[in-house]
Write the structure tokens for this entry.
Amino acid sequence: MSLINEATKQRIIQEILEARKNRPQFLVAMQERQEQGLKIARQCAKILKERFGAEKVVLFGSLLDHQQMSWRSDIDLAVWGLPEKDYFKAWAAIDEGHPFEIDLVEVQNARPYIVKAIYQGIEL
């Protein structure tokens, strides 16, 4: 007994084949999006350091590898030394004026699996 009907199965197969065919163009688009995201991430790091006194900012997550990105990829930034009282003001200052969502992570409050990803990131 199958969980999906034949028409659904064929539609899924067609979508997979189409995605494979379009993969090279998709990767070019993701590389361009990555470059745009890196530029924005650097600007955000500058704001966090200069306006809010952050000691260190690290970019981590899917933006580091365009082959792992999607159209929904966001900018993941880990921050050290950001005063707790300034967290929401800082996030608001960097989360506007561009097409990316920003995840701002205070390292001291991050879960262990997030900390592991952060240490694979790049300092900005």
Remarks:
- The beta strands are 56-60, 75-80, 102-106, 122-123.
- The longest strand covers residues 75-80.
- Helices lie at 6-52, 87-94, 112-118.
